Amino acid sequence: MFDFLKKIFKGDESKKTDSKPIKKTNKLKTEPKKPAVTKSKKFEKESNKKTKPKNDAAQLKPAKKTETKPSADQDDTLKKDEKLSFAEKIKQGLKKTRDAISGNLSALSFTKNIDQEFYDELEMTLIAADVGYAATQQIISELKDRVKKEKLEDGAQLKSLLKKILSELLQHIEKPLIHIETSPFVILVVGVNGAGKTTTIGKLTKLLLDEDKSVLIAAGDTFRAAAKEQLQVWSDRNNVTVISQDTGDPSAVIFDAMQSAKAKGIDIVIADTAGRLPTQKHLIDELAKIKKVIQKFDETAPHETILVLDANTGQNAINQIKVFNEAVSLTGLIMTKLDGTAKGGIVAAIAKEQPIPLRFIGVGEKIDDLKIFSAEDYAEGLLE
């Protein structure tokens, strides 16, 4: 979103070298191959409950590698490739946000002096990228204070400082999903129509399977005719079971899924729900009913209530969070379709105005394109 910064911070790019340390990522190091277990057996519908980890909670991390352990030189190369791949994927997903407003900055003064004109142009740029007024004012204020404190006079020095300030703001919502060792661990997925809930459930299932968890899906969207079929396609790809009914109460479907998961020793139940607009009060109220039915089976459930947001909605996402949070007490967010929008700054607005943990971001259409949110990587992707 900030191509103009390449002009403002002229000469900054020339300081980079190929020897610069590669940014950290959430990828795990390649590990030795574990005893072979076929996926079909591992996630067989009628399989027994597998041994749980000894720790009380397991933080979700990107997929473990199961290939034969490479040599030392190969291992270093693989680590480098994995880091580059993860960082580049985030940058690619945010490209439209970086590029969309560059044409509006031709009037920006390219003087080396850090003056009010620079701050005014930066403010307009941030707001245009859907960073939001409140977050923009905070970023500008902190930037001014640090420039004064550190006695900076050259605009080229501001790039890294701006990244740091943005990253610090985003860290308020950088809290990866924690899987509590209770069985089944219930994830309730909510959102408006077209936000990408079904696709996100498929990708989240893949991520959880890669974390050695067994998963069962509850087709709780009983309103949309194609919802069950779409979930079935994803479940076939992931080799997991979908609990559904041709017609009926979504609460009953989810309750049945929890009973089935308990009987079969399944680790996690992901419950889909029908899309609903924040203005449809009767449908929003229905979510509260679903939650009460879930708690009849397990009073601690749902253990995670995730709102799926479409990044294309921009500032409207703030209102969605408010409405759904009032109805079902959200514990996490997933932001989808970041690769197809110029409104990626909305994440900063959420961090300032509705700081609910952003668990994952969707940066592509592939099954592995659901990434654990990292404040540092996101800031780097916006201000490359």
TrEMBL record:
Stored PROSITE patterns: SRP54
Annotated positions binding GTP: 191-198, 272-276, 336-339
Entry annotated with the keyword GTP-binding: yes
A single GO cellular-component term on record: plasma membrane
Region listing for Disordered, in residue ranges: 12-78
Gene Ontology biological-process entries: cell division; SRP-dependent cotranslational protein targeting to membrane
Listed name of the protein: Signal recognition particle receptor FtsY
UniProt organism field: Methylophilales bacterium MBRS-H7
Gene: ftsY
